[in-house]
Amino acid sequence: MSGTERYERQVLIDGWGTDGQNKLKESHVGIAGTGGLGSPAAIYLASAGVGRLTICDYQDIEVSNLNRQVLFTTDDVGASKVHAARQRLSILNPDIQVIAYDEPISSDNIADIFGDCDLIVDCLDNPETRLIINEFCVERSIAFVHAGVREFYGQVMLINPPATPCLACFFDSEGFADDGPIPICGSTAGVLGSLEANVALRWLLDMDPGNDGVFFSVDLTTMEINRIEMAKNPDCPVCGGLNRL
């Protein structure tokens, strides 16, 4: 199977073409988390032909993951998420490189994991680690896609420092209590993870129509998506002291 044949439908999209496909081939995207959001995001980024994917997760696969973490099957239970994900993605598209890190993300290792990425996709359920990624991206001026899900609801936003508000402008981990497992419909994670991949691809292809810094709130009980223009917080502890564009 030729690479041209694999991507023939997407290169037909106006503004994509073979030049855009070559741009994806040269791109490097980091994916933080390979669970409910990371599974569909990784699948669609790999399928689209992003040349290098760095995935990071430190958990093993549990039966309770399988309602939403579509990279995995019952046979994978007990295995490392990130290694099972790398194997599945490499089978899905052998033309790309998948780099796996089986470790928690911290301020000490994030540069080693994601330091040369063009874009990072936040597929986590841990507010503290999200803020570590946010601070790293602000320091390095790396764009990243944030998303979160609960029940039938979700949110997605492209953060592109220093041009846009950062996650810490409106997100504070202090407000998140550890009240047990997050209730989630699997298809909700599938929708939001797919939206993350869509946002990432359009950014990599320079096709974004001015959605940087826009918070999209998704309600799958009413099938509504609300667009909220976010403003920088001048007192933000992460980006508040940066020069404004």
How are the secondary structure elements laid out?
Blueprint: H1 3-6, H2 17-25, E1 28-32, H3 38-48, E2 52-56, H4 81-92, E3 97-101, H5 110-114, E4 119-122, H6 127-140, E5 143-150, E6 153-159, H7 186-204, E7 214-219, E8 224-229
Parallel strand pairs: 1-2, 1-4, 2-3, 4-5
Antiparallel strand pairs: 5-6, 6-7, 7-8
Helix pairs in contact: 3-4, 3-7
Summarize the structure.
The chain is 30% helix and 19% strand.
Structure report:
The protein has helices at 3-6, 17-25, 38-48, 81-92, 110-114, 127-140, 186-204; strands spanning 28-32, 52-56, 97-101, 119-122, 143-150, 153-159, 214-219, 224-229. An eight-stranded mixed sheet has the order 3-2-1-4-5-6-7-8, sandwiched between helices. It has seven helices and eight strands. The longest helix has 19 residues, at 186-204. α3 runs parallel beside α7. The chain has one domain: Rossmann fold. α6 links the parallel β4 and β5 (143-150). Helices cover 30% and strands 19% of the residues. It is of the alpha/beta class and 245 residues long.
CATH architecture: 3-Layer(aba) Sandwich
CATH level-4 homologous superfamily = NAD(P)-binding Rossmann-like Domain
Low-confidence stretches: none
**Overall strand count:** 8
Order of helices and strands: HHEHEHEHEHEEHEE
Strand order of the largest sheet: 3-2-1-4-5-6-7-8
Q: What features would you highlight for this structure?
A:
single chain, 245 residues, alpha/beta, Rossmann fold, 8 strands, 19% strand
